[in-house]
Design a protein that fits this description.
The chain has one helix and ten strands, in the order ββαββββββββ. By secondary structure, the protein is mainly beta.
């Protein structure tokens, strides 16, 4: 499928922070998600990354004779029994910062849509075990003694939602009040450029598209 960004195969989401930026370790905030793939789909994506990394390393070696500590944006994932269950690919996007060339500050966020490319409200908490795809960019970097690639998170398509529910939620505190009206939520309007990233999944389809 042709598009502005390459798209992963359908996989299982791990530790997704795609609606609200994670500020645990970075004050400027970071959106990130891991996607678990296995079999030939994992092998194919790993080969794309490895090839891009090798080409980037070759360019850097032409400019410098130094050695680097190399980082790859994937790792083998083990289940609770210590058995290999696939490969986790890690996608990231800085939520805010300063453009190194222009000096201008910026904010950004990934676009998140559902099976039919409809925008998903930012209040929806996409949790572990959700199924979907990620549109990304390969962004090589070389900082000091570090050399590697980042998979820059651009868009997410959620095909099967497992919503995150924190422990100690409202159901543990409040009783349901039937006589009041339900507060309706308005979905945000997000412009999806034609031809970008994801195809629509029609009703009755499995989500393999």
């Amino acid at each position: 499928m042709a598009g502005k960004y390459p798209v992963t195969p359908k996989g299982e989401f791990r530790w997704p922070h795609i609606m609200v930026a994670d500020t645990t370790y970075k004050a400027e905030g970071q959106f990130h998600i891991k996607v678990l793939l296995n079999g030939s789909e994992a092998d194919d994506l790993q080969e794309i990354i490895d090839t891009a990394h090798a080409e980037w390393k070759k360019k850097c070696q032409q400019k410098s004779a130094k050695t680097w500590q190399e980082y790859m944006p994937y790792k083998v994932s083990l289940d609770s029994d210590g058995m290999e269950e696939g490969t986790e690919f890690h996608f990231k996007l800085k939520a805010s910062g300063t453009n190194g060339r222009t000096g201008e500050t910026f904010t950004q966020r990934p676009i998140v849509v559902g099976p039919k490319n409809e925008p998903i409200a930012t209040t929806i908490k996409v949790g572990n075990g959700s199924i979907g795809r990620v549109a990304y960019e390969i962004a090589p970097y070389e900082h000091g003694s570090s050399l590697g690639l980042q998979l820059r998170l651009r868009m997410v398509q959620v095909l099967k939602l497992v919503e995150y529910v924190a422990s100690g939620n409202a159901d543990d505190v409040f009783n349901v009040e039937e006589e009041y009206e339900v507060i309706q939520e308005v979905k945000p309007t997000v412009k999806i450029e034609e031809g970008e990233a994801f195809e629509v999944v029609e009703e009755g389809q499995s989500g393999d598209f």
